[in-house]
Structure formats: structure tokens, C-alpha cells
Amino acid sequence: LEDQPDSLFFIRPRRFGKSIFLSMLRAYYDLSQKDKFEKRFGKLWIGSHPTPLQGKYQVLFFDFSRANAGSGTLEENFNRYCCAVLNDFMRTYAGYYSGELQEEFFRTDSAADKLTKIDIEAKKNNYLLYLIIDEYDNFTNVVLNEQGNEVYQALTHASGFYRDHFKLYKGMFDRIFMTGVSPVTLDDLTSGFNIGWNISTDHRFNKMLGFSEEDVSEMLLYYKTAGELPVDTDIEAMIEDMKPWYDNYCFSIDSLDEPPMYNSDMVLYFMNRYLLNKRIPNNMLDANIRTDYNKLRHLIHVDKTFGENASVVQEIVEKGSTTGIIIDSFPAEDIVKTRNFKSLLYYYGMLTISGMEMGEPILSVPNWAVREQLYGYMADIYKDSADLYLETDKLVDRMKRMAYKGEWENCFTYIADRLNAQSSVRDFIEGEAYVKTFILAYLGLTHYYIARPEYESNKGYADIFLQPRLLQLPDMVYSYCIEVKYAKRDASDTEIEKLLSNAKIQLKQYAASEWIHQDKGTTELKSIALVFQGWKLVRVEEV
What we know:
This protein is of the alpha/beta class. The protein has helices spanning 18-29, 37-41, 45-48, 74-92, 99-107, 111-125, 138-147, 149-156, 161-167, 184-189, 213-225, 235-246, 264-277, 293-300, 308-319, 338-347, 368-386, 392-405, 409-421, 432-443, 454-457, 493-511, 514-519, and strands at residues 7-11, 58-63, 129-134, 175-180, 197-198, 321-323, 352-357, 360-364, 449-453, 464-468, 478-487, 524-533, 536-542.
């Protein structure tokens, strides 16, 4: 990091370890904490190999996720928060500033004035200043999502107070490190604060946050050695349980040959629950990491013609990936452009780099935790665009009976009835992809099954495998593989029968595969063929 330019931006998904990383940076560089260096870092590699800049800085640390609180205007709340942080800074480094300056400093209630006074005194006395900002874009993202683009533009353009505040940093600090979850605000602030260097996709920092599989293994061994895990704990088996849910992040095209990274928050969530209850969590997805759909909803712009970005989400749900250049920064007004929207999904952690295709990165769904979020997201899109949705309670009850009684007919007739009853859906439910994705999204929303789409098997067999969640529900009785076939509304009976015949052949091949016998565990596998004619379910058979 010290070999990079002085002002750095680093973007990672929410709950990926950014805040604790910045806390570490602060502890390492802060001259007021220099006497704690040996205790904190002494036993680590950096403890015996400190850099020349260790403990040399007065550190100003902002967390802009806290700058919205208060009953005043946006500007008043932001200024009040900044003043509180600056006052704490001055108290911490009081010995470096004259009594006269401190008196003037505490008298003003303007954050801009306080920054100016620090800047003048620091330059006069050659003090080294380090600015660290956590969630630099949180303040504006909340404004963008809750109050709209017009208010956002007023903050970040022309003489907007947020933009003016960032201008004050230019030339004041020897080093700057900022983190956030998207590059949107960065672009809108650039002309006022044009000194940042974005290292988010630099391969040298691909593994700076998150856990490698080696880290996870070492953590599990530590808890086992410390007696927190039973002596007969199978560490490799625990990793296999976590891997499909939390692994598979890559943030640089040049790091594709490196092992992928685990989401650190999710691993720690798993460990917290496991150590507490001595078993796998009932819910593998930490509620705190669920993407706030409302923060993406306004980007979709769904309408009765099924908007372009909604189609991008559907492509990702159906195929597991898309392709697109990752854009380093773009203004808020251009978020709705498809290439920027794909990049935003990548920055939010809903896509990861998995390869290259015709000169563009392949952006894939990283794991099951993200895929579950996308299922919910897709269900929201169907509901918003055509009032097409399933009542969750009814769906859960039907899937419970599927799981334990083998009574699958009611579940699929319920889905089909909803498709058939909604006349407006006919405007865009025209094609196998739409029907299949609708079924897949809803089957993946209940806690009985992991709804695995065709692309996961890499075999080209059935469209959906409902893998039983035996870790949480070991008494489940049935698992399912489902083949969905689609015929146009004017298809003949002969065409429909041929589709049904093909579905049966595929299901038999699928049911005979080695991996499905492993993943179905102790359950009995049922193979179901569904043939739709337009939006109507016209053939349903168990093979």
C-alpha cells in the first residue's frame, strides 16, 4: 500500500471486512497509538518488519455511514457528525496544537473551518496527516435511494456541500484511504476531488480482504485445538459445508489462477452459530448480509415490457453468468445503462469474475448465498412488473408436503395457476427462459430445498434439481429433479408430446448420474416433467 499513490479508493461488497481492515490501518499508522504497537503487532510478521511510516501520522477517521443521523437537514447532520469527529481528533492530538488555535477550533461549529485550521497548523509544523474514510459513499447512497436523483445531484455537483467538503481534502493530507461499496459517488465527486487512485481491481490487492480456504482451515483447527470443537470434528467436511455458500470471490482478471476467496463475514457467522449450538446453522445466510433490495430496485426500472436490466437479472438467474466490462466509475445518472448495471452487481458482490470470453470478463454468481438473494430479487421483479407472485405461506405449505409426503402436484399446479390467471403476464412470459426462471426463483425461496439450476451440473440434464437441506432437516424424505419444456401457444399436440418424451429421456439420464445420487443423500428422488404451452401448464408427469 505504501508503494501506491498517496490517495487510494478500495471497493468491496458490504460486510467483507472493510471496517476492521481500516481499524487495523489506523492502529498501525496512528502516532497516538504507537506505544501499543508491540502488543498488537509484535507476534505478527509486520511486528518484526515494520515499515518506515508506522506510527508516524495524526489520523483523521470518518465513518460516513453515521453521518445521516439527526433531526436536521442533510447538511446540518453531516456537518454535526464531522465536527464531532474533528473535535475528537483535536483532543487526541492536543499536544501538537497551540492553545490559541484550539480555542478558535472549538469555538467554530463549521467542519470546513475546523479542517482549514488543522491544515494550516499541520503544514506550518510539518505534521503528517492520514485521512481514513469508511463507507465514503454510504451517505450519498442513502440519499440516492431514499430521496432520489435530484437531491443526490444537488449534493455531489456544482456547489453541493458534500462535493465541497471533499475538495477540502485535496492537498491537506499526506495519505488518504477510502472504502465503499460502489464507484458511483466517486465519479460524481471526481471533478472536485480528482486525486484518487482506484485499486479495487488491482490483482495485488485481490486477497487483501476475505478469507482464503487456508485461512478457514487454520481457523477451524484453532477452535478444535482450543477445545471449542469436538475432538472428532472433521475440518474438511465443515469446509465442504461452507464452500458452496460462501466461497468463490475473485476481484481481478489477473487473479483467475489464484484460489478464490470466502466472504469473511459469512464464515464468521457460520462459526458463531456452530460454536454456540454445536451444529450447522438452520439458516446458512446471515440476515445482515442480505442485499437491501430497495437499494437496487430503483435501478431496475421494471415496467410492463420487462425492462432491460430486469432481463439481465433473469439471464444471470437462468444461466448463472453474464459477460461485461467492469467499469471503474460512472455517474449516478448512468446507473441504468446495462453495462454499468452489470458492474454495479459485481461491486455489490452479486457477481464475481470467473473467466474471460471474447475479450470480456465472465461475471458469475459466486455462491448459493448470493443466488438465494437473486431468487428473491427476481420474484420482486415479477411482482412489480406484472403483479405476478406467489403467496409465500401457501408455497411453503405445498413444498413441505413435497418434502415429507411426496405430494408435488399441488405445488406445480399452484405455480401454473398463478401464471395462467395473470393476463398481463402474457405481455412478456413468452419463452422457456421466463417460465423456467419464474419457477426456479420461487422454488428457491423456501427453506426445504436448495434450488440448483441446470448450469450447476455442467451435464445438460434437467433444468432444476431440488437438493434437500439434510444438514438442517435430516428427516426429509424426497428430493426432486425437474425438467421444464416450453411450446409456443400455437404448438400442435404432436410437438407437445415430443417435448414431453424428450423431457423423460433427459430426466432418466439425470437421475442416473453419480453426483445426484450423492447430493440427494438419504432421500428418494422424484423426477418431474413439466410442459408449458405459452403460459399454460399442459403436461405434468412423474418419470
